[in-house]
């Protein structure tokens, strides 16, 4: 079929209508493509935003956890360094023996100092581990300083406590130093 000339085209209303319809469809296709491109860009930005939001939340949680750990365990080194003071006060009380008129004031001073130290420990989350003779040895809380066969005991039983241990909140600050029975019966 031959191409219509411009005059013929103008005279044919159906051709004009078809041409307008075709132009309108091309415009709609172009707009739909543009809308799809905008939707894809929106989805990409939304995904990036959600990832950034999750990263920020994770960073906040991590910083909060680190702050809590620093608050709870930041003084662990100082706490370990003060434990010998506790040990020495305990030894002083043990060495002093019975309270007499001559040593009453000295013993009272040591006891008050010891009480204040224990209160300060508790205030900062430090709790003593005080095993007793006859308790079962726990490698998570006790350090075996020696093993010895002691009649009347079972293997793995604590036979002597050399030094108390300490926990800092839920972490072991220092294990209790103990002697353990090595009886095999």
From TrEMBL:
The keyword Coiled coil applies. Gene3D superfamilies: 3.90.20.20, Head domain of nucleotide exchange factor GrpE. It is found in: Cytoplasm. One of its GO terms (molecular function) is unfolded protein binding. Its main location: cytoplasm. Residues 18-73 form a coiled coil. Keywords: Chaperone, Coiled coil, Cytoplasm, Stress response. It holds the Pfam family GrpE. CDD domains: GrpE. GO terms for biological process: protein folding. GO terms for cellular component: cytoplasm. The keyword Zinc does not apply. Homodimer. Participates actively in the response to hyperosmotic and heat shock by preventing the aggregation of stress-denatured proteins, in association with DnaK and GrpE. It is the nucleotide exchange factor for DnaK and may function as a thermosensor. Unfolded proteins bind initially to DnaJ; upon interaction with the DnaJ-bound protein, DnaK hydrolyzes its bound ATP, resulting in the formation of a stable complex. GrpE releases ADP from DnaK; ATP binding to DnaK triggers the release of the substrate protein, thus completing the reaction cycle. Belongs to the GrpE family. This is Protein GrpE. The gene is grpE.
